[in-house]
Amino acid sequence: MSETPTPQLGSFVRELTVADVIAETPDATSIVFDIPEGDEKEFRYKAGQFLTLRVPSERTGSVARCYSLSSAPDEDSQLKVTVKRTRDGYGSNWLCDNVEPGIKIHVLAPSGIFTVDNFDQDLILLAGGSGITPVMSILRTALKRGTGHIVLLYANRDEQSVIFAEQLRQLQEANPDRLSVIHWLESLSGLATPEMIGNILQPVAAKRHTYMCGPGPFMESARAGLRRSGADMHLIHQEVFSSIEGDPFAEVVIAEPVEGDDEPATAIVELDDEVHEVSWPRNTPLLDVLLSQGIQAPFSCRKGECSACACILKSGEAEMMHNGILEPEEVEDGFVLGCQLLPKSDKVEITYNE
Ligand SMILES: Cc1cc2nc3c(=O)[nH]c(=O)nc-3n(C[C@H](O)[C@H](O)[C@H](O)COP(=O)(O)OP(=O)(O)OC[C@H]3O[C@@H](n4cnc5c(N)ncnc54)[C@H](O)[C@@H]3O)c2cc1C
How many CB atoms lie within 10 A of CB 32? Predict the structure, then answer.
């Protein structure tokens, strides 16, 4: 079998060394990474964000897979992701079978918008199976940094498959007035239906922000349950676990302008503590323009499917070529995907900071 040639990696690709591997359950493994000295700023993350890992493949060169950080930024000096085997899945099984301390893995910097603005508010957290990973980071951060009350409803197949069971028990014990953990085990109670989820959440759903993550059917039941319990659907935040297609690690190539092209637009982009003003060719997605100029905007799939590059259109006009992830409510709130965004007006202001 001939190996697929490796495309040139983008200058934005980083390498992490595995420090530890932890068997969490029979089919879930945590991978702990050291943060290279000097790269602390690049690997700064918010609870709920994820890393994109480059998994080697003899068939395609590599596949890109996202894994939420289950570590908590305020408490852990290392990065930790937790990978659950997907039946017949390539990337998750490769990682669970091959990763050991000392090996190096190419990654993209942390990204994602499944994050909490205000940790002092009361929260509902809903997790199914491996969906606990970003939820765990949010939970620990909220308990450490905030003051609100938190209800966590965590659904699993059976007791054996509960990831972080002991850690959750300890958090509950240490925070009896602030945390209620409700475990839902399919082996004991059957699938969690919208009626059951609605009944459990009804006393608390009305005004709380909800963060949920899990397999598709769980998320559907949870959404329907929240609707039944009178929740404001604008306060629901969800992280959808899917596999990336394509190669987001490849270097960005910007087409040279040719005669007859329209004049480029101007993008004014707020990112972290800086404001960048860049020339924006009309046929080039904003993310590619920023990366090609060495501006480290967040991203993962580069295909409009993952929301890691979501930002807010502050003024001017721009349109997305494809939106495979943002909910209508998020688009109404001004969110756009940087990797799919083309300018429609001469000047466009964007912020990644809200
Ligand atoms: C934001 C985000 C966060 C996530 N966080 C987590 C998390 O915390 N924990 C977690 O467990 N999951 C998480 N996921 C899901 C994760 O990214 C993967 O989708 C999941 O692990 C399944 O990937 P897989 O490759 O095992 O399975 P699949 O994607 O189902 O694998 C099958 C695919 O791999 C291809 N394939 C098969 N063999 C090969 C080969 N030899 N070479 C190349 N391609 C091959 C097939 O063609 C097929 O397309 C997250 C996803 C997202 C988007």
Answer: 19
Say how far apart CA 102 and CA 340 lie, in whole Å: 37
Looking at residue 347, its amino acid is K
Q: Hey, what amino acid is at 316?
A: G
Residue 2 clears pLDDT 80, i.e. is over it:
no
For ligand 1, atom 10, the nearest C-alpha belongs to 83
Q: Is the Cβ–Cβ distance between 80 and 134 less than 8 Å? A: no
Instruction: Please give the structure tokens belonging to residue 107.
Output: 């990654």
Beta bridge partners of 310: 337
pLDDT at 1: 42
Q: How far is the CA of 81 from the centre of ligand 1 (A)?
A: 14
pLDDT digits (tens, 9 = 90+) for 112-123: 989 999 999 999
Share of the chain above pLDDT 90, in %: 89
Structural domains of the chain, ranges and CATH numbers in brackets: 14-111 (2.40.30.10), 123-239 (3.40.50.80), 265-351 (3.10.20.30)
| Residue of 50, 53, 55, 65 best suited for mutating to test ligand 1, as the one with most atoms within 8 Å of CB | 65
User: Per-residue pLDDT averaged across 217-229, rounded?
Assistant: 95
**Mean pLDDT of all residues belonging to the chain:** 95
HSE value, Cβ hemisphere, 13 Å, CA-based, for 278: 23
Residue 7's pLDDT is 73
- Rounded CA gap, 8 and 257, in Å? 23
What separation in Å is there between the alpha carbon of 348 and the centre of ligand 1?
35
Residue 56, pLDDT above cutoff 70: yes
- Tokens representing residue 99 in the block: 């990763």
pLDDT (mean) for 134-162: 97
Question: Which structure tokens are listed for 165?
Answer: 């069971």
Q: Which of 3, 63, 239 to mutate to test the pocket of ligand 1 (most atoms within 8 A of CB)?
A: 63
